[in-house]
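cache lookup: miss for this entity combination. No prior model stored, computing from scratch. Input as submitted by user K.M.:
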Amino acid sequence: MTDELPAWSEPFAAPRRQIRRSLRVRGVSREWAWGGATGKGVRVGIIDSGLENSHPRLHGRVVENVTVELGKAGPTVVPDGPVDMFGHGTACGAIILDLAPEVELVSIRVLGADLRGKGTAFAAGLEWAIEQGLEVCNLSLSSKSESLYPVFHDLADRAYFRGRALVSAANNVPAPSYPSLFSSVFSVAAHPEADPWRIYYNPSPPVEFGAWGVDVPIAWKDGGSTVATGNSFAAPHLAGLVALILSKHPGLSPFEVKAILVSVADNPGRRRPRRPAGPPG
Amino acid sequence: MVDQQTEAALAALVAAARRSAVGRRLQGDIETRLLQSIVDATVRLFDAEAASIALFEQDPDRLEFRVAAGDQGAGAVGLTVPPSQGIAGFVYSTGQALSLSDVASDPRFNRDAAEQTGYVPRSIAAAPLVDEESTLGVLQVLDKRGSPTFSLQDMELLAVFAGQATVALSAARVQRDTERLLRTVFSQLGPDMAEREVEDLVTAATAELDVDDDAPFWRLVDQVARLRSLTDRETALLTDILDVVATHAGRGRRTRAGR
């Protein structure tokens, strides 16, 4: 284990003094949080480069593919083919399914030939996902456009008030980027331990959570696979856990889901967890 | 829509834009030299097979590899890839740094671009060049010699180099700044103007700045740029020649006038 990680991941490296916590909500264990859950009943929006529906690692869990068209009258969301422009969306979807195999994935493609880096398309795709009531959205991308700051801020609030969880990769360049910096969003950076279930809570935001994002074996374009590093691949690990919690405890608010994640995180310095209350499971 | 005041402002801005275009022309290729020094440093520090910088260019939209370094880097210069493809395209489109390893072992991996350069990497790390407004391009490193993968520290270091490249570009891209300036001014002149109208005005103001190498004005600018690069000795020699020419021309004129 190295002790020299970049700033955004540094709290998650041993000895993790900065993230020692003793707070644990009594009765909240991993078993309570998601034991027996599969993600069933939860829809996860992948706002990314598309989903390759036929990819073996997505094993038929993609229920809808849409994209954003930027017309004169403004952006509109239209049906899209089962394709992934880069492989990145498919990688994120497959990571989520590894943890929550029965979620339904919705592809909202905001990247590609005509949508290159267009924050407007990103915002329109995110708005659509919130309006559709998708319980979780994975955002392994961000926008730097100052002019879109209020737009994303409004969308993050709208999602929060409707109880929708936005899970966003922290940006790893030193510039403001949205919506990963907003407080209601689950902002995630990478830790290097090869364990998809290992998460850390960072009490010093804006990056609140650490999940596996180094040398991750990922699905990629054209049915392929590769090994990748980046905060992009940490976010879907956390999104998978959020989906599991929501599938077992439908209707929880993002605030409540965060509290559960904090309580079951692998941060050091806790008291030994008590046995969960209630009947033995 | 465009009133008299706006017309006057437009004329002033066109003049300003022209001056900045002249400045850019005189500046020579400082941008490329700065970027080259950055990829040289990158490839050395990472002990990598290659490092390169691709910049976004329009009409048509593309990422163009401008500089490269390292034993396996040379083939990349001049190569263009669509911004919707490959690792560079992804990093450009999302503004997210990324590294992939085990790339070459996957036959389905999209490596057309790499094959064009004659070198197929096993691993790639790429970071976006991001300024306050947008993503300008991508810095990528291929194959660290000491390791099959790139670590998080590598990604951070790469982001530092990408930051340097961004500063270098911002300092050198006078033309781009001009368009940004025009866009800001037009938006403030007519807050009700649609984005499209602003774009039309910016295009109108900068249209004649498109390099027309044959125009006498730009030929003159180029000559001045060449003069600037001369050594003191060459400048002295040239001055002597010009003196002779001027004297000769003056004599010729007097002769003609005396007839």
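stored under new cache key. Strands of chain B lie at 48-57, 62-69, 80-81, 98-101, 124-130, 135-144.
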